Amino acid sequence: MSSLSRTSWRRCEELCYEGFRYWLHKNRISVLFSFRLGDSLVFRPRSSFPVAPPLPGKEMLDPLIFSLGLIELVSYWKAACPPRIRIQAGRLSDEQIAWWKRLYFRGLGEFFFRNGLAVTEDEFAEIQASGPRFAPFERRDCTGTLVPVGGGKDSFVTLDLLRAGEAPVTPFLLNSSWEQRSTLSAFGFSLSRTAIAKRTIDPLLLDLNRRGFWNGHTPFSALLAFAALLTAATLGKRWIVLSNEASAEEPTILGSQINHQYSKSFAFERDFASYAARWITPSVGYFSLLRPWNELQIAARFARIPGALGRFRSCSSPGRSWCGRCAKCLFVALILSPFVERRRIEEIFGRELLEDVSLAPFFFSLLGGEKSKPFACVGTLAECRAAAALLARRPAPPLLVRLAKERGLLKAADPSVETLLASWNSDHGLPSEFLPLLDPFGPASFFA
To answer: Domain range holding 416?
Structure first.
């Protein structure tokens, strides 16, 4: 192993998905995958998921776990980007292979871009899958919702909206964090009422990354989708309810299809829902409750949830407090600014981020002054410019807003905050029974 280095990549001609195993316990299922990169690099990542009586059988678990392995393998493939992916664990039709190839390529768009890899969707890898075939299954007793919970404002808004609905809600956590637990406690959910899955990365991959093998962004929300599907199906839940907004559609690299948030986009949501219903199970639906809304509408609704401002966190840096130095912190401060007092925003981040000149490059990037937006889950250029333009009309605009105005980044033709608050995105997958939860708001009500 000590001789492994970046030059070893050329000898890695394929990643093989060798198989999976699982063990059922009283209330959990443990899963082990096996991936082989080249001749000698073997990865065996583990996961575990909650289950409930009646315990699921092979006809349910095999297609769910096989599919989860197909998205897990991305993390190991990207270490060397071999030209072939060989799947021994199960069989895929040509149509399914095309589906997975599209997900891999688009979900790794940022990874390819930031590592300077010039590849096309047709040529980046060949996929062979000739293992056993797993048939889709149907479960007729599914009811209620499974809600993946992060630690940001979107999860708060989804849980708040679902309180007005009739469907029972079960939160879902993948590797529980402080932010997630803080969100749950705000709505009175105990961990005993929460579905918690655990996922580990094989330490060998982390060692290879330290040695110089490729590393970078993967479509984590796609992995979350398959993990949630496994959990929802085994627990008998009818719906997986996401918290992704209309704003996730906009590319990160302007004028391209490279999108940091691809697996949060409606394109992926629609693809996943169709794939799951056809090839795994039609018993569990998958949609984002917030898809009709943009980031400004979500921020406005979030600001009205009692106690939420003191509990949420979606910073790009680890830890319990906001770092106040990253693009995500700056974006959240900006998008909340039309609806939250300046003093309160300063309390959240520990200082006035919009007065920090060192954050100017991030700010200009959020407003479209650079060739790309920040590689983070942030809103559209129009939403950021609208929030900045609103601040520019106030008696004492923050420093970053004044600098953006001087650079001509705030244009009169841009839609206003009021216009964006009155918008409705019709490209969504909400079932009819959930639509009334997003009661229409006029712009004035968001400023109440």
So the answer is: 314-423
